[in-house]
Amino acid sequence: MAKPQLPKDFLWGYATASYQIEGAPHEDGRADSIWDTFCRIPGKIADGTNGDVACDSYHRYKEDVALLKQLGAMAYRFSVSWSRVIPLGGRKDPVNKAGLQYYLDLIDELHANGIIPMVTIFHWDLPQALYDRYGGFLNQEEYVQDYVHYARVLFEAMGSKVKYWITYNEPWCSTVLGYSIGQFAPGHTSDRAKSSVGDSSTEPFLAGHNILVSHGAAVKLYRDEFKAKDGGMIGITLNGDWAMPWDADDPKDVEACQRKLEFSIAWFGDPIYKGTYPASMRKQLGKRLPEFTEDERKLVQGSNDFYGMNTYCANYIKHKPEPPAHEDFSGNVEILLEDKNGTPVGPETQSPWLQPNPQGFRKLIKWISDRFDRPMIYVTENGTSLKGENDLSKDQILKDDFRAEYFRGYVNALAEAVTHDNVDCKGYMAWSLMDNFEWAEGYETRFGVTYVDYKGGQQRMPKESAKVVAELFNTLCVA
Ligand code: GBH
Q: Which GO MF terms does the UniProt record name (predicted)?
């Protein structure tokens, strides 16, 4: 069998997101996003912190770019803070020149150093003003127009310098974690009173529907007015982890795995590639899952130039014998970290949900490739935390063998999928360039290949794993 390889022009680099790294929440006219507000609610963030300083990248973007260059990265995926560019968020609100300039400077600095920018338009930090005005995602009328206007501002300002656009990062997280579990902003939970549009059993699906329509509308705008002259590509990034049956001999667990993948990935992927929601979701959710009107379907179907794939781990899945709970959003399954025989998915990390399983990655990317008819795929996030890393000394942290081993396993599995499974993957962005604000986990959980000394002026120091990532791609990208 041929040796696993990746294409010579394979695009590899690192990813970050605005709220997780920038800090400077009120500088140069930036206004609050829903994450600024959410972090102020006692108990929502594990260590009581927020993104007010984070990696201070608003002031240190030149250091970030120098770091990327030092690590040998070809590309950098970052996100734009909507409330920095349009503080009040809406289509009639003023554009903040200074906020926009930050991203133009960052992009110029990347180009000056030969690094290709990949821009995420939205990575969870919705302007608070839009949430206050009309409930954000829940109001399709208003929201879609505001999102498309925001996208237009970015296309106009940066389009000639950006060839890779991502409309949304992981809508599953914004919808389920934000509108049902309350683990993410805006923190809606099931004990919240029903609003005029619904409750935690309907809001995630309404929010998801409106996100899809706005994604489709922004892609249409890009294709109609920018693509020909700017020559770029646009797609959405979806999250999802591989599903393995808890009891491999139980057909109901095998079936439950498919359902879990459909509820997490195909929820958004099927409308984009097939024009409808998965049958399993329609069956369980009935009218609580919106229907696409003909106009909406036309916008959404076919709206990906590439598929952005985020994945971190795998799970064992057990079917539930009882009928689905009203507020279930996973396909009526139990999500487990051990199978029937007590075999763990993988070793433990600092993140309770993350146990690495590289072969699961190979299977998942093949599943995505098959289901969506072999789309061009960019892995836009993949990486790991490390158990107890935050408690180690700086010197110990820099020797992150566990993370290095993770990348060896995952990147080799990717090369296998490309070489042996006919998967069309063109790039890989590791999460993350540096330790950063890990949302509800605060700063206790680190995902960086670079250590950030939060008590020592945000100094950055590359860890061992950064070298390993570069070596892996230098060795594998030869096909
Ligand atoms: C990504 O999300 C984010 O895009 C990035 O910003 C973040 O820093 C990074 O990963 C690391 O966490 O409720 O048990 O079903 C990862 C997303 C984490 C998605 C956990 C779903 C399932 C938890 N996910 N998750 S569970």
A: cellobiose glucosidase activity
Q: Is 131 in the pocket of ligand 1 (CB under 6 A)?
A: no
CB distance 381 to ligand 1 below 6 Å: yes
Kindly report the average pLDDT of the chain as a whole number.
98
Geometric angle at alpha carbon 158, from 152 and 163, rounded to 5°:
100
User: What is the ipTM metric for this complex?
Assistant: 0.96
Predicted confidence (pLDDT) per residue in 3-35, tens digit: 999 999 999 999 999 999 999 999 999 999 999
Q: Is the CB of 124 under 6 A from ligand 1?
A: no
Q: Phi and psi at residue 315, in whole multiples of 5°?
A: -140, 155
The verdict on the CB of residue 146 being under 6 Å from ligand 1 is: no
- Whose alpha carbon is nearest atom 22 of ligand 1? 353
Structure tokens at 69: 């260059």
Per-domain boundaries in the chain: 11-474
CATH of domain 11-474: 3.20.20.80
Write the DSSP assignment of 92-125 as a string of letters: TSPP-HHHHHHHHHHHHHHHHTT-EEEEES-SS-
Atom of ligand 1 nearest to the CA of 183: 13
Q: Which residues contact 45 (CB under 8 A, 6 or more apart)?
A: 39, 439, 440, 441, 442
Hey, what are 81's tokens? 């803070």
Per-residue pLDDT of 282-318, as tens digits, reads 999 999 999 999 999 999 999 999 999 999 999 999 9
**Looking at the annotation, which residues are catalytic?**
170, 381
Q: Which residues of 206-241 are buried (b: 16+ CB within 10 A; e: fewer)?
A: bbbbbbbbbbbbbbebbeeebbeebebbbbbbbbbb
Which ligand 1 atom sits nearest the alpha carbon of residue 438?
A: 8
pLDDT tens, position by position, 30-78: 999 999 999 999 999 999 999 999 999 999 999 999 999 999 999 999 9
Can you tell me the distance from the alpha carbon of 158 to that of 165, in angstroms, rounded to the nearest whole number? 10
